[in-house]
Specification:
Length: 113
């Protein structure tokens, strides 16, 4: 892929990522709420505490479901990362076979000189 198309795709992915920044932050916040709810649910011993932390986890899960557009933003960020990593990538030549007989012959020639 040449740099022109990488630039075009990068600009489009950047616009999508910026436009979905709010839902991405909301999804991250929902994930923290779910984590807290599950963490304290597993540590609690009383039934009332388990019910309370289950409700907190459920609220976090419902909040995460409402932030589903953030998945598109996360995919756009992944595309930007891919473009960043492959910006200066050069073509790789065919790998050189590591033939033990060829290496032996090269070393034998060095020894006999």
């Amino acid at each position: 892929m040449n740099k022109f198309w990488m630039t075009v795709i990068g600009v489009i992915a950047g616009i999508i990522a910026l436009s979905n920044l709010g839902p991405i932050i909301g999804l991250a916040f929902s994930g923290v709420i779910i984590y807290i709810g599950v963490h304290y649910y597993l540590r609690s011993t009383s039934t009332a505490a388990k019910i309370l932390w289950a409700i907190v986890g459920t609220v976090g899960a419902l909040s995460a479901v409402s932030n589903v557009p953030a998945i598109i933003g996360v995919l756009a960020i992944a595309v930007l990362w891919y473009i960043y990593k492959n910006w200066n990538e050069e073509t790789i030549a065919a790998p050189v076979k590591n033939d033990p007989f060829t290496n032996f012959e090269k070393q034998w020639d060095k020894l006999t000189k």
